[in-house]
Amino acid sequence: MPNGLTVILHEDHTSPLVVVDLWYHVGSKDEDPGRTGFAHLFEHLMFMGSKNAPYPSFDAVMEMWGGHNNGTTSNDRTNYYEVGPKNLLETFLWLEADRMATLAEVITDDELNRQRKVVQNERRQSYENRPYGRAELVIPEVMYPAQHPYHWPTIGSHEDLEAASVADVQAFFERFYRPSNASLVIGGDFDPKAARAMVDRYFGWQDNRPVPRRATAAPAVLAENHAVTETDRVQLPRLRLCWHSPALYAPGDADLDMAAHILGGGKSSRLYKTLVFDRRLAQDAFAYQGSQMLGSLFQIGVTAKPGLTLDDMQRAVDEELDRLVSHGPTAEELERARNSHLADFFKGLDHLQTRADLLNHYEHLLGDPGACQQDIGRYEAATVASVRDALAKVAAGRRLDLRVLPGAAGGDLPEDDQAGAS
Q1: Which of 16, 35, 36, 381 is deepest in the core (most CB within 10 A)?
Q2: Are the beta carbons of 217 and 294 closer than 8 angstroms?
Q3: How many CB atoms are closer than 10 A to CB 119?
Q4: Rounded distance, CA 119 to CA 201, Å?
Q5: 3-state secondary structure of 172
Q6: Greatest alpha-carbon span in the chain
Q7: What is the spatial distance between Cα 38 and Cα 152, in angstroms, rounded to a whole number?
Q8: Backbone phi, psi, residue 144, to 5°
C-alpha cells in the first residue's frame, strides 16, 4: 500500500472461515539494553483494547460471534491474529487497524502496571520457577556479548520492566508499530476485491512513516569454551551443550536441522538410543537447531538417570557427536530425518492460521510470501556430505557446557565453573 503496509491475500474456500494475521517486524532484538522486554510487553498491552474498542470490548466483540485472537513474540518479530467466521473479516480488520492507529493514546499507568505484573509473573512461571527454565536465561547471557541483540531473553528482565514508564512504552510503540513495519495476511473464505477495499478503508488513511532501523549484528563467536554450573529446584542433573551456528536460511541451517534430528530427534535418534536405551545413562536426550535471523544456536541436552552424574553422559554425547562428524549420517538416517521434517511441515499446512502465519514468515525473512518451495528445497537438497560438513564446522567451534544441578534455584556458581575457560 502507499503507506508501506504489505498486504497478502490467500484464498481458501473449503470452509467459511477467515484469518487476519498481522506481523510487526519488531522483536526483542530491536530493544535497547536497559529497556528489554518491551516487544513482549506489547503482546499484553495490545489486548487491553484501543481507543475505539476499549477493554474488554476488543475481545468481546469478536468472541460474541465465534471469533478468537492471540499473539506471539520472538527475538525477531511479533504477530497478532484473529480467526473466525467469514462474516467477521471486516470486524477483525477494523480492530487491528484501530489498534495500530490509536493504542499509544490510551496506555495508562494503571494498564501498564497491570500488564507489567502479568509479564513478570509469566517470567517466574516460564523461567524462574519452571524446572530447568533458568537455563534459558543463562544461555543467551553467555553465548552473546552484552550489546548483541540476542543477549537478553524475549521476556526481558524484572528490572527493565519495573523501570518502564508510560512514556517509554509509548515511544517504543511509535517507533515500531506503523504500516511500513508491518505485513498483513488475510486468509480463508473471502472476496479479494471486497477484502482489499476493507483494507484500504481501515488501514489506507494511516500515515506513511519511515521504516524503523533494523537491528543488525556481526556473527557472534565465543572467545573461549565456557563451563557453567547452575543450581535449580530439579531432581535430576541436566547437561546442555551450545554452539553458534548459521542464521536462519543461511547455508548449513537446514543441514543442521537434519543433524539435530539424527542426533536427538525422538526415540530412534542416536543419542536417545545410546544414552537412554543401550547404556541407560540418561532419562532423555534432545538436540535442535535454534534458527534465528541474526545467528542461531545448535543445542544438545541430556538429563541424567537417578543416581548418575553428568560426567559419563558428557563423554557419551561427545563420542556420538564425534562419530557423526567423522562418518556422517547414513543415507537411511538422512531420509528419515527429511521425511519427518517435511511430514510435519505439510501437516501444519492443514491449518489456515498456520498457512497465514507462514506467508508472513516468508515475507519477513525472505521478502517473498511465496517462498515455500525455496524452503522445502533446502531440505530436499541436503546430502550425507552436506549434513556432515555443516555439523563438523559447528562442532569445531567453541561451546558452552552448561550443567544444571539439583539445589537452590539460581544458586551461586562454583568458583571453578565461573572461570569459564576449559
Answers
A1: 36
A2: yes
A3: 19
A4: 34
A5: helix
A6: 66
A7: 12
A8: -125, 140
Of 94, 325, 78, give the one whose Cα is nearest residue 203: 94
- One-letter amino acid of 159: E
67 Cβ contact partners less than 8 Å away, ≥ 6 residues apart = 82, 83, 84, 85, 88, 91, 92
Q: 185 - beta bridge partners?
A: 8, 21
Tell me if residue 230 is catalytic.
Answer: no
Of 140, 139, 297, 144, nearest to 228 by C-alpha is: 139
Tell me the sheet residues that pair with 69: 82
Q: What's the pLDDT at 309?
A: 87
- What would the pLDDT profile of 291-348 be if each residue is shown by its tens digit? 999 999 999 999 999 988 899 899 999 999 999 999 999 999 999 999 999 999 999 9
Q: How are beta strands 6-11 and 182-188 bridged, if at all?
A: parallel
> Confidence class of residue 411 from pLDDT cuts 50, 70 and 90?
low
DSSP string, 179-230: GGGEEEEEEES--HHHHHHHHHHHHTTS--PPPPPPP--PPP--SS-EEEEE
Identify the H or E element spanning 83. Answer: strand 78-85
Which three-class secondary structure state does DSSP give residue 366? helix
Find where cell 536427538 sits. Answer: 264
Instruction: Give per-residue pLDDT as tens, 101-115.
Output: 999 999 999 999 999
* DSSP H helices in 293-403: 310-327, 331-348, 352-366, 372-380, 384-395
Element (H or E) spanning 270, and its range? helix 270-271
Q: How far, CA to CA in Å, does 416 sit from each of 122, 315, 395, 410, 421?
A: 32, 20, 24, 17, 9
- Judge contact between 106 and 40, C-beta under 8 A: no
Helix, strand, coil % in the chain, rounded to nearest 5: 45, 20, 35
Between β-strands 226-232 and 399-406, what pairing exists: parallel, antiparallel or unpaired? parallel
Give CA–CA dist 33/51, Å, rounded.
Answer: 30
64 φ, ψ (degrees, to nearest 5): -60, -30
Active site residue: 31, 43, 82, 320, which one? 43
Nearest to 300 by CA among 268, 328, 264, 340: 264
Which set of grid coordinates corresponds to residue 349? Answer: 499446512
* Interstrand relation of 282-290 and 399-406 (parallel, antiparallel or unpaired): unpaired
Measured CA to CA in angstroms, residue 217 lies from 81, 222, 288 at distances of 29, 14, 23
Is 409 in a helix, a strand, or coil? coil
